[in-house]
Amino acid sequence: MAFKDLTRRIYDHTLNLASRKNALTWLFVISFIESSFFPIPPDIMIIPMVLATPKEAYKIAGVATVASVLGGYFGYFIGVYGFELIARPLLEFYGYMKQFGEFENYYHEYGAWIVFGAGITPFPYKIITIASGVVRLDLVVFTSICFQSCFCCCSSAVSPPSNCCNICLLK
Questions:
Q1: End-to-end alpha-carbon separation of the chain, Å?
Q2: pLDDT, tens digit, for every residue of 124-149?
């Protein structure tokens, strides 16, 4: 119950940030950290900010997109460096390195689709940014797909359904 209360307080505080004069700065911060470790998505800030200033909608979506991609890099590097420190010793201890190698091969084959899917659905994007770093998914592919999926998702929060990518409405 304590975790639920803590999450609710964080959610309420994040929502409150949308009404401040420096809301765009806070949106950048929340979008960045949500891509790698923060539990509350930036959508709860985007929607009230757009309702308050509709002419700024695509600027708001752009800020959230850039911050999400930069935060995705942070998650990627958590995966790159955290794997050697934490995950590899555990996988070796339990004898799962062979299975991890198979997972890595699948991830390289389907990684672009995995990243895109996580970017447009409620699946925790941070898990995919970290996993992409663990398997060292090609950084050009990672960047391209992150921009596409994050912008599609962020712009779906600011556009009427007739103007946005229909697949993004899944989120």
A1: 27
A2: 888 888 889 999 999 999 999 988 88
pTM greater than the 0.85 cutoff: no
Q: Alpha-carbon torsion 22, 23, 28, 29, what sign?
A: positive
Closest CA to 68 of 132, 151, 140, 127: 151
Q: How far apart are CA 94 and CA 122, in angstroms?
A: 31
Residue 56 to residue 49: CA distance in whole angstroms: 9
> Which residues have a Cβ under 8 Å from the Cβ of 124 and sit 6 or more positions away?
118
Q: How far apart are CA 118 and CA 58, in angstroms?
A: 21
Handedness of CA 142, 148, 153, 155 (dihedral sign): positive
> DSSP code of 83?
I
Question: Is residue 94 within 8 Å of residue 43, measured between CB atoms?
Answer: no
Residue 60, both tokens: 């708001």
CA torsion sign, 155 to 158 to 163 to 166? positive
What lies within 8 Å, CB to CB, of 147 at 6+ separation is 65, 69
Structure tokens at 86: 């934490």
Tokens of 69: 């991609």
Dist. CA 82–CA 161, nearest whole Å: 40
CA–CA dist 67, 150 (Å, integer): 10
